[in-house]
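User
New here, explain this?
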Amino acid sequence: MSDTNVHDSVSTFAKSARSHDKCIVAVVGLGFVGCANSVAIARSLNNVVIGLDRDNNSGQQKIDDINSGVFPISSSDTFLLEEFQAVYSAGSLLASSDPSVLYHADVVVIDINLDADREEFILHNKLEVDINIFGEAMGTIGTHISPNALVVIETTVPPGTMENIVEPVLNDAFSKRGITVPPKLVHCYERVMPGENYLESIVSAGRVYSTSSDSDSEAFVSFLSSFTDTTLHPPVELSSWTASEMGKVMENTFRAANIALIEEWTVFAEAAGVNLHEVIAAIRQRPTHRNIMAPGLGVGGYCLPKDPLLASWASSNFFGLERMKWAENAVRTNEQMPVHAFELINEMSNRSPENRVGIVGISYLANVGDLRNSSSLYLMDLLRDHKYDVTWYDPYILESEAPVNRTSSFEVLTSVSDILVFSTPHRVFFKSEMIDQWSAYLESGGLVLDCWGSLHGALPKSFRFLDRIKVLGNGQNSGNE
């Protein structure tokens, strides 16, 4: 579809919405959050949604998919996929790469990615954040939005970004257009959980926000109420944009630090001959300690690997303080967990005739097909760099996103692997027929590294070859015969 046809189509779309007294919402950024958010908002009979993404190959593919009735993001949430088809069929969702369509919007929701360069941090201890790219995007938005539009920033940003970047950039764009009123700004960070309840996590999660005025607060809560249950989950208004920004990165820094703490204790427990899983189960009996994490392969996804770095960058660049050591150390420690798993595999390989390793699950999270910053991929790279023959199986990963050396089934994977690494505990791997295959593999002499401590307990007692299973964090089981 040509740019002219897209513009005409959106104009017709907006005109129809106006004639039916509907709120026109533009969602800028059609990634993991933006696509699902578009569906959540468009489900409301009060709203229609214009999705906007970049005019490049990736962005145009997502736009074409949406306008053809194809949800552009891999998801195991059947409810999300069904609701996408419903809003598509109802004509409540349209996508474009033309920023001029923003002028039609009553509400503009910003779901643009803002990344920190984790590799540059790990290798060179440098904090680099895409703040200029984000600022340029806000400038484009300010050039096209209506001065009456409510702008809602959902992007996770370094605390201070609203005050130092967003507001000045939009004010400057408005000034160049001869607009004398200030932009209507809200910060309300997204809280989504990829997986089988992705859409539900958007419409049911309690929101935290801050606005620039009481009238903007009322307008925002009215908008939020159109697609979330604000009665059951009342939004919490904070005193400043910076407080709201800090809330998101502190949430995720807390979780990343919790994980890092356990990774340190995982290595300690193994050396001390202690089963950390039973220790943690005992600790969780205390109500104050039920959210303590358990051993695993490390962090992944979009938020936890970078959000602590956003906080540290803001501390240094916006507020003139020292960088945040605890936040940064959480990222460094979590980065080492795949390295620890690699070291355990090296020890186990002394017992196998060949260096053939099968990775069971490569998504960063159970029961989803999401490879963003997956620790399993990092582990696979480490193994291949050290001349291991690596294959993998994960039924959740789409063929278009699959790395090399995928096997067609778990059964095939067991036939070509001397060591299996249980790296993502998808529910499917615990089905009865799969447990039979795990048992047969162990009985035939195969070795297993269980990165989550969940497999050997699922095996029938007669097939628990514990001397052939190494459990991450269990120092009582050395994996030696």
The mean pLDDT is 93. The domain at 3-239 is CATH 3.40.50.720 (Rossmann fold).
